[in-house]
């Protein structure tokens, strides 16, 4: 049976026997995975389709919560949709506010040091409430929660690789369908001939330059003001579109000719809609994967320019 060593014992082993120390680190890593698995699959938690279906039969509804970021909520939707399909009971989604956000020292985030605040939650709720598989969507106060989707942050799921859209499926055992749209909105036809773009400070690929987009006429940017001012240095004629909520943002993206973005919230909307979309892939963290039709990603400038040219001709 594995037994953890205290600091002094670990340092002594490292100093006296490097091979055994490496073996201990390997066993420690495995032990942590086992601990996480035991925590997640606790008999009291709804961590399998069978448990979820049985609970739904007895209680007549399923209540979930999520604390964001907003993009993480969007990528949780395929699992939520599948829970609805499995149980055929009302599904209630509650958004937890104020959970701490950890960032690398040189990065900033529009919400500062939290993942979801009240304003952001309300903007998100405007988009989520109309979805057919969500019967209730509100800010979490004192409601009972049956499935806490935040458990993927408990330390056992690697968050810097794979596909964000599968994080919640790992917790529930519910396998989501990721190649079909999981978001439905009425497209804003005013943007039918427009390239829509978003680019956050985080998750940038610093080997690419968007200066070539000056050769394309109709380009708009959706995002916060600081991001817009930054991209305007490269594309002077780009226009900034501000929205009151994320339903409006989704309608613009749905109506656009195509979308370009990095691994940020607007791309999660484009991915949810399965519109023609181009993902700027970061070398540092690759955890967003375009799936299904119309999805393209790239590392290098040549590929970016060729994809844009191809989509513009369609």
Secondary structure elements and pairings:
Blueprint: H1 7-16, H2 18-40, H3 49-59, E1 62-66, H4 70-87, E2 91-95, H5 118-128, E3 136-139, E4 147-148, H6 167-172, E5 195-198, E6 219-221, H7 225-232, E7 239-240, H8 246-255, E8 258-262, H9 265-273, E9 277-280, E10 295-298, H10 301-313
Parallel strand pairs: 1-2, 1-4, 2-3, 5-6, 5-8, 6-7, 8-9, 9-10
Helix pairs in contact: 1-2, 4-9, 5-8, 8-9
Description:
The chain has 314 residues and is of the alpha/beta class. The protein folds into two domains: 49-172; 189-313, Glycogen Phosphorylase B (Rossmann fold), CATH 3.40.50. Helix content is 38%, strand content 12%. Helix 1 (7-16) runs antiparallel to helix 2 and helix 4 packs parallel to helix 9.
Brief summary:
This protein has helices spanning 7-16, 18-40, 49-59, 70-87, 118-128, 167-172, 225-232, 246-255, 265-273, 301-313; strands at residues 62-66, 91-95, 136-139, 147-148, 195-198, 219-221, 239-240, 258-262, 277-280, 295-298. With 314 residues, it is of the alpha/beta class.
What are its keywords?
Rossmann fold, 10 helices, alpha/beta, 12% strand, 314 residues, 6-stranded parallel β-sheet
Q: What structural class do you assign from the helix and strand content?
A: alpha/beta
**Strand line-up of the largest beta sheet:** 7-6-5-8-9-10
Oligomeric status of the shown chains? single chain
Number of DSSP strand runs: 10
- Please name the CATH topology of the largest domain: Rossmann fold
Please identify, by name, the CATH architecture of the largest domain.
Answer: 3-Layer(aba) Sandwich
The CATH H-level superfamily of the largest domain is Glycogen Phosphorylase B
Structural Rg: 22 Å
CA-CA gap between termini: 62 Å
Shape: globular
Task: Name the average pLDDT.
Answer: 88
Order of helices and strands: HHHEHEHEEHEEHEHEHEEH
Task: Kindly estimate the percentage of residues that lie in beta strands according to DSSP.
Answer: 5-15%
For the record, the count of structural domains works out to 2
**Which percent bin holds the helix content?**
25-40%
Largest sheet: 6 strands, parallel
């Amino acid at each position: 049976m594995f037994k953890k060593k205290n600091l002094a014992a670990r340092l002594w082993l490292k100093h006296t026997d490097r091979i055994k120390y490496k073996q201990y680190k390997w066993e420690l890593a495995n032990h942590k995975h086992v601990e996480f698995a035991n925590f997640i699959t606790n008999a009291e938690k709804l961590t399998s389709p069978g448990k979820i279906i049985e609970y739904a039969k007895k209680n007549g509804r399923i209540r979930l919560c999520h604390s964001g970021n907003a993009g993480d909520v969007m990528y949780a939707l395929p699992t939520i949709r599948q829970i609805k399909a499995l149980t055929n009971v009302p599904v209630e989604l509650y958004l937890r506010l104020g959970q701490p956000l950890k960032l690398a020292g040189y990065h900033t985030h529009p919400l500062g040091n939290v993942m979801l605040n009240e304003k952001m939650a309300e903007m998100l709720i405007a988009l989520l409430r109309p979805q057919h598989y969500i019967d209730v969507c509100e800010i979490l106060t004192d409601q009972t929660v049956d499935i806490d989707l935040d458990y993927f942050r408990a330390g056992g799921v690697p968050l810097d690789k794979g596909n964000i859209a599968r994080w919640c499926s790992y917790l529930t055992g519910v396998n989501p369908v990721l190649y079909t749209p999981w978001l439905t909105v009425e497209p804003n036809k005013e943007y039918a001939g427009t390239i829509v773009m978003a680019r956050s400070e985080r998750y940038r690929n610093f080997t690419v330059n968007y200066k070539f987009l000056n050769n394309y006429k109709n380009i708009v940017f959706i995002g916060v003001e600081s991001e817009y001012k930054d991209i305007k240095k490269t594309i002077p004629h780009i226009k900034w579109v501000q929205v009151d909520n994320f339903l409006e943002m989704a309608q613009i993206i749905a109506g656009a000719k195509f979308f370009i973005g990095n691994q940020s919230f607007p791309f999660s909307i484009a991915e949810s809609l399965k519109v023609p979309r181009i993902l700027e892939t970061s070398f540092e963290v690759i955890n967003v994967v375009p799936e299904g039709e119309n999805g393209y990603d790239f590392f290098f400038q040549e590929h970016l320019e060729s994809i844009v040219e191809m989509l513009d001709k369609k």
